[in-house]
Amino acid sequence: GLAMVNAGRCDTREAAEALLRKKLHDGSAMNAFTELINAQDGDPEILTDSSLLPQPERISLIPSPQAGYVADIDPLKIAQAAKLMGAGRNTKEDSLNLGVGVVLHKKVGDAVEEGETLLELYVGENQHEATELLRDAITFSPTPVPIPKLIHEVSLGTSLSGIRA
Question: Rounded to whole angstroms, what are the CA distances from 124 to 22, 48, 97?
């Protein structure tokens, strides 16, 4: 909503949020996404049939080594692990493995039991190295931790004033 206010599309955050909710519920957001997929010669059927997406060689579940609370997740280590398995490339000539990835089952602030699944790994190459990075990416606390805000509100009006046409 804040981006729509800063772009001048809505007068208030409340109006922007109401408009966004309307677009999500009336199907116009999905129609726009479908048009975007079509414009890139994609198959919009992937939105309703996930079997059309590239599939991993196998799925590995990574359990929590301890009980407690998720205190921190290092996004760089998550990205590095995914890249090791083939989800990223070093040069534009390198190929991507579109069937690999990482699914986080817990977020910062969540309680976790020892042995409970923390991560789901869609395995490609270098599974061992990726798994070690992923284990190092999550730190724990024995006591509850505050849940961080996902979005920090920042007014872009002044910082963008010099580049507006």
Answer: 40, 25, 7
Where helices occur in 26-60 by DSSP H, the ranges are 28-39
* Cβ neighbours of 142 (radius 10 Å): 9
φ and ψ at 7, to 5 degrees?
-85, -5
C-alpha dist (Å) from residue 12 to 9, 21, 23, 114, 137: 9, 14, 17, 45, 38
Output the CA–CA distances (angstroms, integers) from residue 39 to 10, 33, 51, 132, 156, in the order listed: 27, 10, 22, 39, 30
51-80 pLDDT, tens per residue? 888 888 899 999 999 999 999 999 999 999
pTM value?
0.69
Give the list of residues 6+ apart from residue 76 with CB closer than 8 angstroms, or none. none
